[in-house]
Amino acid sequence: MSNEPAPPGGSEDPFAPSGVTWNRVSPKLTTARYVTGAIWLGIPFVGAVVLGVIFGGWVWSAAAVLALLGAWIAWLVPRQVRAYGYAEREDDLLVRRGVMFRSLVAVPYGRMQFTDVSSGPLTRKLGIAEVKLHTASASTDATIPGLPEAEAARVKDRLTQLGEARLAGL
């Protein structure tokens, strides 16, 4: 361990700023991702099994690969959902995600141009939505998936108010 002091205003870990309380996304996001994965993998898996029955031999390897991919997704998705978090600070919004490849995005409220709330048929059925922040930078990806619908509306309204207040102060 290094004896150097922590950087000013933060902890040693850039993905865990000191003094930040993280809000989690809904565990229902796991269900949504499982259903999506089952659809995308299930149809080819059934096709591979049918072809395996008809032709036999090495054709079964396609079904095996798809089954392994499904097992990997079943293991990975809950970890990814638990890794999502967001924090509303005084001057900016922090959004973190990722297990192996972690990401932390800080979006100053004054830089936000607008916010979206979106929900597809599956996520609507589960009662969750996604909030996306848009800035002038095309590379900014500040998306918070899997929020309960009421929380998504609250976050969108709060971010809109804070964005307008900070923009007016410029």
TrEMBL record:
Keywords: Membrane, Transmembrane, Transmembrane helix. It comes from the Bacteria. Pfam families: bPH_2. Residues 81-159 form the YdbS-like PH domain. This is YdbS-like PH domain-containing protein. The chain crosses the membrane at residues 34-54, 60-77. The keyword Cytoplasm does not apply.
